[in-house]
Amino acid sequence: MATQSDREVMEFRRQMKEKLKKEFRRQYWDPFKHAAGDGHVFDPALQRYMSMRACQYDYFKATPRTTIAGLLSISPIFITYFFVRRERKKLEEDCGTGKIAYEDRKYKFMV
Q1: 31-42: per-residue pLDDT in tens?
Q2: CA–CA gap between residue 73 and residue 69 (Å, rounded)
Q3: Which of 23, 39, 43, 90 is 20 to 30 A from 76 in CA distance terms?
Q4: Over the stretch 75-109, which tens digit does the pLDDT of each residue have?
């Protein structure tokens, strides 16, 4: 069960949501705004988000945490490449020297 303060907060949020919806509809369906050439609704929150995304590299600071995160995100690719390359090189060597017969090869039907 929600307490009285929780219900008040939920009611306040519902009212705020309805107010914002009403304002959006009012701006979106305003015929004079479209006639003036401004056919979109300006959303300040969306503008702040877009500005943040455009300028995030200007304010980025390399810290030990971001460096570790970058290395941890890239290292699985290099580790996978290393193991696949090693396996393929061994397979090529075995096929080239005749250790593996043609009918026993794993990838003989691949182009």
Answers
A1: 887 666 676 788
A2: 6
A3: 90
A4: 999 999 999 999 999 988 998 898 988 888 877 77
Q: Please report, for the chain, how many H helices and E strands are present, in that order.
A: 4, 0
Inter-residue contact 106 to 91 (CB < 8 Å): yes
Q: What is the DSSP letter of 41?
A: -
Distance CA 104, CA 94 (A): 11
Nearest to 28 by CA among 89, 20, 8: 20
- Token code pair at residue 14: 């519902």
Alpha-carbon span 39 to 10, nearest angstrom: 33
| 100 contact partners, CB below 8 Å, separation of at least 6 | 91, 94
User: Cα(65)–Cα(71) distance, rounded to whole angstroms?
Assistant: 10
